[in-house]
Amino acid sequence: MSRLIVVSNRVAVPQASGKAAAGGLAVAVNAALKERSGVWFGWSGRITEEPSERPAVTTRNRIKYAVIDLKEGDYQEYYNGFANRVLWPILHYRVDLAEFQRADLSGYIRVNRIFAEHVSKIIQPDDTIWVHDYHMMPLAKYLRERGHANRIGFFLHIPMPPPELIQTLPRHGEILGSLAHYDLVGFQTESDRDNFGRYLVTRGGQATTEQGVYEIAGRRTHIEAFPVGIETEAFARRARHAARTDYVKSFRRSVGDRKLIIGVDRLDYSKGIPHRLEAYETLLRTAPEWHDKVTFAQITPKSRTEVPEYIEMDRFLSHKAGQINGMYGDVAWTPLRYVNRTYSRSALAGFYRAANVAMVTPLRDGMNLVAKEFVAAQDPEDPGVLVLSQFAGAAAELSGGALMVNPHEIEGMAAALKRALEMPLEERRERYERMMAVLMRNDIVQWAGNFLDALAPMTPTKSPQSIPMPRPILQGVGYGAGWHGVHGAALRMPQM
Q: Which of 125, 254, 255, 404 stands 20 to 30 A from 295 (CA)?
C-alpha cells in the first residue's frame, strides 16, 4: 500500500496523552495521514552540537513522526538567515527588508540536502511526498538527484510575488526555480499561482494545452490554487464552549458594555499592525462619540526576537499604544489593550466570539486563518463584523461578507471600522451567513483532500538520468549588481 510522506520545517508531534497539536498545518496533515498510512518528517525544534545520524521516530495513532535535530550554525543560516531574512520578506513583497548573506544561502541549501538525505532513506517507490512551505523549496530537486521518481507535491503557505520581485533574489533560479522539480505546486490564491506561472515563462517554460500545466527543461509541472481552510465545525464548537468559561467571561466583563474590537497577529511587518493602530487612532480622533464606548484588544505574540526589524517594530508598537491611551484614555477607560503573550486556541476562540469586530488587515498574507477562525467562532444570532485587507489571501473567499479595506489607506480603514461598529443586526447576519457557507464548503480536510487528489493521478516524473535539469535562470546575468547586503555592499555569489 502506498504511503504519504509529509515534509515540513517543523513537525507537530502529539503529546504522549494523544492530544494533537491544534495548528492549521497540524490539523491538515493529521487528517490526511489518518486516511493513509504515512510519515511526517521534519526538524524537531532542538539545537544540538552534533547533527542527527538518523531521525527519532514516534508513532501515534498509526502515524509515524520522524524528526531530526539541527546544529546551531545550520539553524542560524538556514532558518533565521536565508528563510526568514531573505525569502520571507521577498515573498511578502518587502524586498527592501531582505538582507542577503552568502553563508545563509549555503546553510539553506545544506539543510535542504540534509533533509533530502534522511527522507531518501525512507522513500519507497510508490510513496507520495508532500512538501510544505518556503523552508523546503529545493527539496524535490535533491530527491530527484538521488533517483526518486515518486509523485512529489509542494504547497506554499505564504504569498508568491510577481516575477519582477522574485528575480531580485540572487540565485533565484536555484531556489524558486527548483519548484519545477515538483509534479504539483499549490498556492493560496489564483494571483499567487499566476505570478509563478509568469515566472516559469521567464525561465523558458511554456504553458501547455492543459490548464495550469507548464513544460520546462523536459519536465511537466502542474500549478494550481488550493486556498487553505480551517476545521470549521470543530472551531465553532470550541468557540461556543470557550465562551462559557470563567476566563472568557471575565475578559468580556472587563470590557463592560463597550463594543470590543480584536486583532490577533504574530509580531511581523507583513501584518500591518502599525497601520491598524493608526486607523483606530483616527477613529477616536474623528468620531468622539465612540470615546468610552469601544475597546480594542490587539494580541501580538512576539516572534523572531533576534531579528533587528522585529525588535524595532515591537518598540514602535509599544510606544504607539502608549500614545493612544495617553491621548484618549482616562482612569476608567483604556482604549487600547496591546498584549504580547500567547493564548491557547480555545482562549482565542472565546475572544473571537466575544468580539464585535475583528481587524485582519495585513499588508500581504498567504491566507490569514485568523479571518476564517473569527467567522467560524461567531454566534449566528448575533455575529460580529470582519474588517479584512484586500491583500490577505482570505479576501478571495470572504470578500462577499467582510468589509474590504486597503490597509495603506488609514482614513478608509477608520471609516470601515466605524461602519462595522454601527452595522445593524440584519446586515451582520447576512454577511456572516455568506462567509460561513464558504468555510463549510472548503474546510481544512477538504483542502488536504483536494491537493492530494490533484497530485495522485499524475504520471510519476522521469528519472533525473533521463531528463535535463532546469538551467539556472541567472546564467549569464550579473546578479550581483543592484543587490545590497546588510552593509549596502554589492555581493557576488559563488557558483555552486
A: 404
Q: Are residues 282 and 421 in the same domain?
A: yes
**Structural domain harbouring 371:** 232-441
What is the identity of the amino acid at 243?
A
| Residues 222 and 237 reside in one and the same domain | no
Is there a catalytic annotation at residue 157?
yes
Tell whether 328 and 183 lie within a shared domain: no
Task: Give the sheet arrangement for strand 206-207, strand by strand.
Answer: 56-60, 63-71, 38-48, 4-10, 128-132, 151-155, 184-187, 219-225, 213-216, 206-207
Q: Is 290 part of any domain?
A: yes
What pLDDT score does 488 carry? 33
| First-last CA distance in the chain | 39
| Alpha carbons 360 and 425: distance in angstroms, whole number | 21
Is the domain of 313 the same as that of 244? Answer: yes
Mark whether 333 and 378 lie in a shared domain. yes
The string of DSSP letters for 270-311 reads: GG-HHHHHHHHHHHHHH-GGGTTSEEEEEE-----TTSHHHH
Kindly indicate the confidence band of residue 24, based on its pLDDT and cuts at 50, 70 and 90.
low
Residue for grid cell 534522511 = 118
Q: At how many degrees (to 10) do helices 425-441 and 232-243 cross?
A: 130
Mean pLDDT of the 303-329 span? 88
**How far apart (Å, rounded) are the C-alpha atoms in residues 301 and 341?**
5
What type of residue is 4? L
pLDDT at 468: 41
410 assigned to some structural domain? yes
214 and 254 together in one domain: no
Q: Which of 135, 157, 172, 275 is catalytic?
A: 157
Residue 226 exposure: Cα atoms within 13 Å on the Cβ side: 28
- Does residue 474 belong to any structural domain of this protein? no
Q: What is the pTM of this model?
A: 0.89
Q: Say which CATH number the domain at 402 has.
A: 3.40.50.2000
Buried b (16+ CB within 10 A) or exposed e, 265-275: bbbbbbbbbeb
Does residue 303 sit in the same domain as residue 380? yes
Instruction: Work out the angle at residue 235's Cα, subtended by the Cα atoms of residues 29 and 63, and round it to the nearest 5 degrees.
Output: 25
- 132 tagged catalytic: no
pLDDT (tens digit, 9 = 90+) per residue, 184-214? Answer: 999 999 999 999 999 999 999 999 999 999 9
pLDDT tens digits for 340-375?
999 999 999 999 999 999 999 999 999 999 999 999
Is residue 28 domain-resident?
Answer: yes
**Phi and psi angles of residue 59, each rounded to the nearest 5 degrees, phi first:** -115, 125
Distances in Å between the Cα of 185 and the Cα atoms of 129, 201, 278 are 12, 15, 38
